[in-house]
UniProtKB/TrEMBL annotation:
Residues 1-72 form the Helitron helicase-like domain. This is Helitron helicase-like domain-containing protein. It comes from Rhizophagus irregularis. Pfam families: Helitron_like_N.
Length: 107
């Protein structure tokens, strides 16, 4: 989970000519607020299934923006066991070469 310097909660509090990296206090607070909501969705609302345990670590990028690595351990009865199970919740798309040619070429 990565802090987005263009989140509305960050950009509306910046003074003219400031960027998100100029306000690490602001970005850290907004990031922490959104991280708590994500963890609530995952652990209390069971968006991916019932969570038996979790751990996370927060790191800061070179530009000063925080990001979190989250490990979820799902309850035994809800664990994913096959490729089909994973495909049901994880997906990736190849960019359209006409709309995003540079991204398509990169992929």
């Amino acid at each position: 989970f990565t802090c987005n310097p263009k989140w509305q909660e960050v950009t509306r509090e910046l003074l003219p000519h400031q960027s998100a990296v100029d306000r690490p206090d602001l970005t850290a607070r907004v990031f922490h607020m959104k991280l708590r909501e994500l963890l609530k969705d995952l652990c209390e609302k069971h968006c991916l299934g019932k969570v038996a345990a979790f751990v996370y670590v927060i790191e800061f990028q070179k530009c000063g923006l925080p990001h979190a690595h989250i490990l979820l351990i799902l309850s035994q009865d809800l664990k994913l066991h096959s490729v089909k199970d994973y495909d049901a919740i994880v997906s990736a798309e190849i960019p359209d070469p006409d709309v995003h040619p540079l991204t398509y070429e990169t992929v």
